[in-house]
Amino acid sequence: MAVNLTKFSANVDNIQGLSDRPNTTDGLTSAELKAKFDKAGDDIKAFINGVFIPELEQNFNQIVNDVSIELRETIATVNESMSTALTGMGLNQDTYSTATEYEIGDMVIHNYAVQKCTSPTTGEWDSSAWEIVPVVTNE
Fold first, then answer.
1. Residue-range domain boundaries for the chain
2. Which phi and psi angles does 109 have, rounded to 5°?
């Protein structure tokens, strides 16, 4: 459910409508002319403080909920895309086995990455005996 917030619509062209000699032609006093200059800022301030912030406060939970739903959907889409990509590259299943004796140069898939053995190893995973092999490079 989308939250509809009031849009600012006040005319802020207060100065543009004045003649070139507002004191003489329009009969404005100095105080009235100063008020014309301040009107746009005052209108914006009144809108922000009197309309916009109260609407945000009133609708805060709905706004957060809407953003959370969109974020969850985006994360789900990214996860699905990553899973598809990993499967497509054959990186979705570990091929490392604790029962195998690995020699320098042997390659396995571990933690979704191609790994190359850099020193003989067997048993539990020892990250110091392996290095990640880039699947894609920009050469």
1. 1-92, 93-134
2. -110, 125
Phi, psi for 102 (deg, rounded to 5): -95, 140
pLDDT tens-digit series, residues 51-97: 999 999 988 988 888 889 889 999 999 999 988 888 888 888 899 99
Phi, psi dihedral angles at 115 (to 5 degrees): -120, 140
Predicted TM-score of the model (pTM): 0.46
Average pLDDT, the chain: 90
Residue 131, beta-bridge partner list: 116
112 secondary structure, DSSP code: T
Taking 3-state DSSP, the helix, strand and coil percentages for the chain, each rounded to the nearest 5, stand at 45, 10, 45
Cα–Cα distance measured from residue 35 to residue 46, given in angstroms and rounded to the nearest whole number: 15
Cβ contacts of 18 within 8 Å, gap of 6 or more: 26, 28, 33, 36
For the four alpha carbons of 82, 87, 90 and 92, in that order, the dihedral sign comes to: positive
What letter represents residue 111's amino acid?
A: N
